[in-house]
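Shipment paperwork, digital attachment
Item: protein structure file
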Amino acid sequence: MTRRVCLQLAAAAALESLYGAAKAAEPSRVVAVAYPELAEPFRQVFTSIVEGVQERLRATVQTYVVTPATSAAELAEDMKRRELKALIGLGRGGMRMAAALANDLPVLVGCVVSVPEVEARNFPVHSLAPDPVLLLGRLRRLVPAVKRVHVVVDPRVNGWLARLAREGLRADGVELLVQEATDPSVALRLYSQLMAATEPGRDAVWLPQDPTTVDDNVVLSLVLREAWNRGIPVVSSQVAHVKRGALISMYPDNFEIGRSLATAALKLQSNPKALPPGLLPMRETRSAINVRTAAHLGIELGAAAGTFDMVFPAS
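Attachment content:
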């Protein structure tokens, strides 16, 4: 065998080895994504999340658009035919599919709001509730004098989120004062009482995504009016509240959410017990601030203003 032939064979073997290693390192292309049929601009949210999933997997994923008539059995049969091994369900429609298939293959859910804990017992659920540790930590950097944060929650919906917030704030020497309400009228009464008792320079109020306790008309108007008059910072888990006068909020980075969901799906695909079931807060966030409110509270933003992704009022 000539030297040239030997070199050619060696080069071919090296290329084959590199190809094999690259192929082995490539994530398996067996993840599906199911999401509800919605009109724009909501459809774009799911599109961005799917793009993040695909970027993380370095592959085009199989998507299913879920309607009220979609059969979980038919979806499962199609996934089996395509040899798909894990399902990411987005929104309520995707969660319905995930719940129906949870006993047959690894599933996880993302892009849902205000999910009762009981509905997340069998698989991981990545909620759109911003991680209160991140949100309230941002508040503490802007207003380090805050020592107490008040919140009213429906324990059936946000009890888990209040527990996370309490643990995170305790490490910073901040007390979370939680009151519970399972009825909107009770929530309104509690907010009326706590706003009257807040102390400027010491207290802050946190408004979670809670359909029972945070009414966007009566409760929000009351809290923002009293907070403005008393000089109390309000942080909200809903970015629309910043436009109306809350100090700061966090909102989804949809592409990064897709990347995180894909990473979790790969872990579950390798080991169905790799991730515990239950609710998870959103950590893939962007941030918003109301600079008019900040100025009213005497907060000197300086360079910190440039760290926010969205600023109100719009200039």
